[in-house]
Amino acid sequence: MNQDDSASNGPTARASRVELDRRRFLMGSMGLVGGAAAGMLPAARAVAGNLPPDVPAWTRSLGPGVLTNAYGQPSPFEQHVQRRTVDWLTADRIASISFTPLADLKGIVTPSGLVFERYHAGLPAIDPAQHRLMIHGMVDRPITLSMDDLMRFPSTSMIRFMECPANGGMEWRGAQMEGVQFTHGMLACCEWTGVMLSTLLEEVGVQKDASWILAEGADGAHMSRSIPMDKALDDAMIVYAQNGEMLRPEQGYPVRLINPGWEGNTCVKWLRRLEIGDKPWYHREETSKYTDLLADGTSREFSYVQECNSVITSPCPEKPWRQKGKYWIEGLAWSGRGRIKHVDVSLDGGVNWREARFTSVVLPKSLTRFGVEVDWDGSPMLLQSRAVDETGYVQPTYQQLRDARGTNSIYHKNAIHTWQVRSDGSVANVQIS
Ligand SMILES: Nc1nc2c(c(=O)[nH]1)N[C@H]1C(S)=C(S)[C@@H](COP(=O)(O)O)O[C@H]1N2
Ligand SMILES: [Mo]
């Protein structure tokens, strides 16, 4: 129920418009005219609404048949649920970012078509038949794999989140983005399917002193990162599928690296090359970018892990409340170090906390959904969530984060987020320390 719906005659007026459109459609498609059409649809029925006790129009007719959409799409009524970008953030859309519409998503798996996109050189159009993954360097048996070759290795699937470390980076110096899509939407969680990197490393025979791997993409940026051997042997995956189908082009088709729980930047898309070595390469994305300038002027480098974080996705600026009464406050929590252990929610800016309930499976390095029920009396609130992961790490306040890291950073902002709910139910992005 929203304000529009409570306005007098709103739904009835809309329903009869739908009915009129349908009559025109039926008359057109069946070649009926005048009296014959009126006979098909008795006048009393035609002006009645689609709401109970009336039988809706869609129940009184046959719909289009199978294969109307050979590849299915969401309902046309869900067209507002889209990735969005913020044009002032980047000089063009070729090296840019689009954001996941977190406010409209349910559960923990992000639909493939809504996963945020981050491109450094636009979207390459790769023909999988002409794509190869080369593994070379400090190995006994260098190989060049076609996609068919890759499919012959044992396959694994896991649900893991993927987050750009710049997520929320625009908020280090204060709140400025209006909407959870923009404050936290460089975040997604998919079922990823592929081959464990450790399996491929066994195949090529890694030499004794090898300790680093360079992963390089086939896009015009040749985007590349140095990955420590420990991660490669732990849970890194060479992924070719996402949510049950082959990777979307936006996500790295036909093959990408996924380093669960680590900076999205390390998850090199359109993967063409893995070079095994004994030291990091210090390429652009691990020097000029994706390092964290601290207050004393030094930089943290190789800050790979996405630390424990959470955000309330309803209410939020995109999902205001319209009236007093009972509501389900819900959100997402995640940690690059493992499972979420505990989430608390505060209605008063962190003075009092209540424990949230998990409403999804709780998987390691995955989004976890939580919620609490409230009975809202219309008073303003400062809504916060605070997550704790299985290592005992507690999501920090802004004050704690700035004390530890200064204010020069862009990346790895995981502070407790605050939504101000006003008495009219509208929601604003604010920061309290
Ligand atoms: N080859 C290549 N890999 C890439 C990128 C890129 O531009 N080129 N962007 C990186 C960054 S910064 C992030 S956050 C993730 C985003 O993955 P997504 O676009 O599938 O959401 O991919 C990473 N892998
Ligand atoms: Mo990123």
| Helix/strand structural class | alpha+beta
Helical fraction: 10-25%
The CATH class name of the largest domain reads Alpha Beta
If you average the pLDDT, what whole number results?
A: 91
Hetero compounds: the ligand Nc1nc2c(c(=O)[nH]1)N[C@H]1C(S)=C(S)[C@@H](COP(=O)(O)O)O[C@H]1N2, molybdenum atom
Low-confidence stretches: 1-45
Strand count: 23
**What's the CATH architecture of the largest domain?**
Alpha-Beta Complex
In DSSP terms, counting alpha (H) and pi (I) runs of 4 or more, how many helices? 9
Whole-number count of domains: 2
Topology:
Layout: H1 3-6, H2 10-30, H3 34-40, H4 43-47, E1 96-98, E2 117-119, E3 133-137, E4 143-145, H5 147-151, E5 156-163, H6 180-184, E6 187-196, H7 197-204, E7 212-217, E8 224-228, H8 229-234, E9 237-242, E10 245-246, E11 256-258, E12 271-277, E13 292-293, E14 299-300, E15 309-314, E16 325-334, E17 340-346, E18 354-355, E19 357-358, E20 368-376, E21 381-389, H9 398-405, E22 418-421, E23 427-430
Parallel strand pairs: 3-12
Antiparallel strand pairs: 1-2, 3-4, 5-6, 6-9, 7-8, 7-12, 9-10, 9-11, 13-14, 15-16, 16-20, 17-18, 17-21, 19-20, 21-22, 22-23
Bound molecules: the ligand Nc1nc2c(c(=O)[nH]1)N[C@H]1C(S)=C(S)[C@@H](COP(=O)(O)O)O[C@H]1N2 and molybdenum atom.
Ligand MTE binds near residues 217 and 265.
Which properties best describe this structure?
5-stranded antiparallel sheet; 9 helices; 2 domains; 433 residues; 5-stranded mixed sheet; Sulfite Oxidase, Chain A, domain 2; alpha+beta; binds molybdenum atom; binds the ligand Nc1nc2c(c(=O)[nH]1)N[C@H]1C(S)=C(S)[C@@H](COP(=O)(O)O)O[C@H]1N2; Immunoglobulin-like; 23 strands; disordered N terminus
